[in-house]
């Protein structure tokens, strides 16, 4: 769940990126930064009041030089450092991605299968959800043996559960709720 | 005749009676040595008259008041005695009446006591029955609740055990074809829901 602060920064950055026509490039850079800042220890240091502003600025400068970031992303990082909001970078990335997806008419879904799904099956599932939502589907496929059988798809905040594990849970719940005649 | 004259006459009569023996004695003595000692008789008479007058003047009212007071006291005491006697007679009559009615009163008291005891017994019995009914209902509710809890626990245990067995069976026997069939069914449901 992204914070309101992160959403505001993401919205501003996306708006500027759209104006400059560099949304894809900024999204790729944010993804790269997000992967680099994914460590909770780094986030804690970035958000700590003990970390001086000069050190944060030096860190941003090193990053931008190392990753060869675009001007917009570089300036954006500078603003985050000045406002001591670098710890919000992960939230900014997530909301930026959501805005980007919305602008492109696409959704991200997670497909969890009890066993590895063949590419054909994955394509079928993606197609089914594209038809259902009318949007382009970006799928992340995960194998989860806990499901026992079937698949679970999470899309747009909804869960489409076709797993055997859930069916067994429903069966157990029904059994527990049924009357016993001795 | 007025009262002072009558008193004076009485006094004169008493004096005559009192002096008669003295005159007789004096006459006898006078015959012996030369006649009646009139002077002695006169002084004696005067003394006596003075004595009578003093008595009548000072002692008589006191005696009269004493006698009158005593008379009044006696009359009052007699009246009080009569009153007391009357009251005693009335009290005696009342007690006699009460004694006569005592048996009836005892019977009434006994009847009242019996009625009170019966009422008390009925009230105690009713309260005891109410309490017993309440306890019985509580026991029924508690028993029913415990049965329900036991049923629920049993159902839960059975369901849990069945789930464990089913899970194990699925793991042991689920094939790739079954997995593919599950995915197909899921896709069919998604497509069906989209229409």
How would you describe the overall organization of this protein?
The complex is a heterodimer of chains A (182) and B (195). Chain A is elongated and about 70 Å long. Chain A has two domains: 4-102, Peroxidase, domain 1 (Orthogonal Bundle); 105-177, no CATH class. Chain A has a four-stranded mixed β-sheet with strand order 2-1-3-4. Chain A starts with a helix and ends in a 5-residue tail after the last helix. In chain A, β1 (106-113), α7 and β2 (136-143) form a beta-alpha-beta unit. Chain A has helices at residues 4-20, 23-36, 40-47, 53-67, 71-82, 89-104, 119-133, 164-177, and strands spanning 106-113, 136-143, 151-155, 158-161. By secondary structure, chain A is of the alpha+beta class. Chain B is an all-alpha fold and 195 residues long. Chain B has a domain at 3-129. Chain B contains three helices and no strands. In chain B, α1 (3-33) packs across α2 (38-173). Chain B is rod-shaped and about 200 Å long.
| Global structural class of chain B | mainly alpha
Per DSSP, the total helix count of chain B is 3
Form type of chain B: rod-shaped
How much β-strand is present in the residues of chain B?
Answer: under 5%
Here the CATH topology of the largest domain in chain A equals Peroxidase, domain 1
Number of helices of chain A: 8
Measure the end-to-end span of chain B.
Answer: 160 Å
Q: Summarize the amount of helix of chain B as a percent range.
A: over 70%
In short:
With 182 residues, chain A is α+β, with helices and mostly antiparallel strands. Chain A has helices at 4-20, 23-36, 40-47, 53-67, 71-82, 89-104, 119-133, 164-177; strands at residues 106-113, 136-143, 151-155, 158-161.
